[in-house]
């Protein structure tokens, strides 16, 4: 989907994408915009990316992203995914409580996470 569609889904709270063998990114290349922080899915609380062998990243962007209400992220069986965003741009997740069912983790920047290609664990810095 395009970034403008993702910004327009004002009430979306949970996003599950599963068993998509050919998907390489969730959000397509961004439209030209000014500088600043971009908010996608403004009320998103849960994000699940499961069993997508070609998924390389969530979004290719030059902007910092914020997900103000994102609490849970699960990424499983996505062997090509090495970072959340291809450009290694800052991803703000101030409400994040759990990544891959590990509630001991707390993160400010999802993109600092590097994914293990077999199990997609996310070691995050506090």
UniProtKB/TrEMBL annotation:
Annotated ranges, domain Disease resistance protein At4g27190-like leucine-rich repeats: 4-97
InterPro entries referenced in this protein's UniProt entry, alphabetically: At4g27190-like_LRR, LRR_dom_sf
Protein name as annotated: Disease resistance protein At4g27190-like leucine-rich repeats domain-containing protein
Organism: Solanum tuberosum (Potato)
């Amino acid at each position: 989907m395009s970034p403008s569609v993702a910004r327009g889904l004002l009430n979306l709270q949970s996003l599950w994408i599963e068993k998509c063998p050919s998907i390489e990114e969730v959000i397509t290349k961004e439209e030209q915009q000014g500088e600043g922080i971009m908010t996608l899915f403004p009320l998103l609380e849960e994000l699940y990316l499961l069993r997508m062998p070609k998924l390389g990243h969530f979004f290719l962007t030059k902007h910092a992203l914020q997900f103000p209400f994102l609490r849970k992220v699960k990424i499983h069986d996505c062997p090509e995914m090495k970072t959340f965003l291809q450009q290694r741009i800052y991803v703000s997740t101030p409400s994040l409580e759990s990544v891959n069912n590990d509630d001991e983790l707390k993160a400010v920047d999802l993109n600092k996470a590097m994914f293990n290609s077999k199990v997609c664990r996310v070691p995050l810095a506090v």
